[in-house]
């Protein structure tokens, strides 16, 4: 939860605007709050407004809008440099903070009209390294499913359904834990999920998903489910405490099943299973890139294009297939 008392009023107004007008998810709001809190704490040090250098002890609710009006592009660059050199932040982390700062100042200047000039107008995003996504190959994916489906394991129906959805549908962790039973339509073999930006999309279920879900629902607890703020009584996946399953619990399940399958759990995660689903569909299903974009819920096609990579064996085969290779 965000402690709004720790924020200046203009930060809380920005968060409210992001929630109600931009329709950002609560996870995005928390990230905005964290990023801006860190930025404002840095400004206090940068502008000599405090002698404290321990970020955890710096308060920001007393930073006036007049201080914000003094911020120049160079000051923002200094913050990004601090993140890189002092905090050793990765380019992706810095890029997220740049995005937050850019949206924040745009709001202050154009919407709230609390500042006359936008110092972040020409702020550029740090260049990101293009890395191929880590994913399980087909054989390792089968090993993971086999290990998860072991009937000697407690909650094997639930855990098998979870792994099956990850590997077949490529959904995000947040999407999976928020699925309610009512979101599933077995008459058309599909389910609705809420993705980034509170955008709803339809995911179609193949026979493996349908079978896994029905097997789980047949043994899912019916009584004693908590009616709490997480709407556990509506949730598809439940913890042993009969509450909506948490992200941490799902991550623990995936980690444990990877180990049981003899796979390196330090290399893979729930998000890597999303990469696995996308890569397998592209490599084996000859899925159109636009269809894959829709399935994964990507706003930009460039995000989906990371799955169009080819492995070394494919490159080798391409060279060997050259008609000039045997001359």
Features:
mainly alpha; 14 helices; elongated; 327 residues; single chain; three-stranded antiparallel beta sheet
Written description of the protein model:
By secondary structure, the protein is mainly alpha-helical. It is built from 14 helices and 3 strands. The mean pLDDT is 87.
Largest sheet: 3 strands, antiparallel
Helix content: 40-55%
Count of DSSP strands: 3
How much of the sequence lies in strands comes to under 5%
The number of helices is: 14
The SS-based structural class is: mainly alpha
Overall geometric form: elongated
Provide the gyration radius in Å: 24 Å
- Report low-confidence residues grouped into runs of 5 or more: none
Q: What is the succession of H and E elements?
A: HHHHHHHHEEEHHHHHH
Distance between the termini: 68 Å
Overall pLDDT: 87
The main sheet orders its strands as 1-2-3
List the helices and strands and how they pair.
Blueprint: H1 9-20, H2 26-46, H3 65-69, H4 73-85, H5 91-111, H6 138-148, H7 156-169, H8 173-177, E1 184-185, E2 190-194, E3 200-204, H9 207-219, H10 247-260, H11 270-285, H12 289-296, H13 301-304, H14 312-320
Antiparallel strand pairs: 1-2, 2-3
Helix pairs in contact: 1-2, 2-5, 4-5, 6-7, 7-9, 7-11
Short summary of the structure?
The chain is mainly α and 327 residues long. Helix content is 51%, strand content 4%. It is elongated, with a radius of gyration of 24 Å.
